[in-house]
Design a protein that fits this description.
eight-stranded mixed β-sheet; 2 domains; Aspartate Aminotransferase, domain 1; 13 helices; 377 residues; three-stranded antiparallel β-sheet; Aspartate Aminotransferase, domain 2; single chain; alpha/beta
Length: 377
Amino acid sequence: MIPFSKPYHIRKEISYIKAALKSRKISGNGYYSKKCHAYLEKETNCKKALLTQSCTAALEMAAILADIQPGDEVIMPSFTFVSTANAFVLRGAVPVFVDIRPDTLNIDETKIERAITKKTRAIVPVHYAGVACEMDAIMAIGKKYNLFVIEDAAQCVGAYYRDKPLGAIADFGCFSFHETKNITSGEGGALLINNEKFIERAEIIWEKGTDRARFFRGEIDKYTWVDIGSSYLPSEITAAFLLAQLEKSRNINEKRLKLWNYYYENLIDYERRGYFNLPVLLKDCRHNAHIFYIVLKEPAKSLELMNFFKKNGVSAHSHYMPLHLSKAGQKYGKVNDKLSITEDIYERIVRLPLYASMTKSESKKVLSLLRNFYIKD
């Protein structure tokens, strides 16, 4: 079976974990966490990076830092993972779902303003598949209406918008290092803070609502409870694993980009013949080959194609059920306008297997099966 995804392993993960165990400091915010923070800060040029247990945790921290209150409204796409909305619903806020663009499958920046009300507090663009949202326009809207902008950059390590690293453009950015992501620690994430005034409170929230980080730096004699917070930091075992991955992140993304381009080059003729649409490549933006998907012409074909792949030993998947169509989405969120593109795309999208260790023969098999599905000899 060719899997849909497979974590890519670097040999250093084990040696770093062994070193962390020998250090007897495995509870978090130790040597390996600090090395990861330094790496992320250097690579993204953010003001501060903090590892978290997941991208979900990073989003929850961002919601607290943005002082989201019950009844506030937060604008986001419906075509996203549930964590995007959950982080704000947990604060008592209402997710306001906006339609996506048909080319990038990202939030349609031209439809954001009409969703803004007196209750709106933040905008959460989600960079789908590591392809950038139109951040200049979104940041301009945020500035115009004095709104926080929080990037859900879960899929975006190593991706850029006009030479700006995704996750480091808005007030806050949130990364995921889940096992399905390009760079992984099994579970894990990071919060990128791009405004210095939030750094001190972020550290407090991160450390269970205490000023423990200042204590460890020798800035105070003892630490105490000073704010709300939770145990958002991961263990040193997780950080050690992650550091090995981060050090090879360029190499991992290059391997994925090579496979992504191989798919694209071999399928472009099928798009020209009208069988399906391929991902749109944006000018001045660099993606990280997180996902390769096709958008079929007929919704009924998507399940048929995925079953055909499965029957022949290949795992391919659709993607998010739009949040506004879910039971919880209807309970906690609201729709500002018709989400016709969102509802249409989710019924027609099929994601192909893609992982850094994927072999040429595996990718050839995927392409061969796709050809056989559409072209009957």
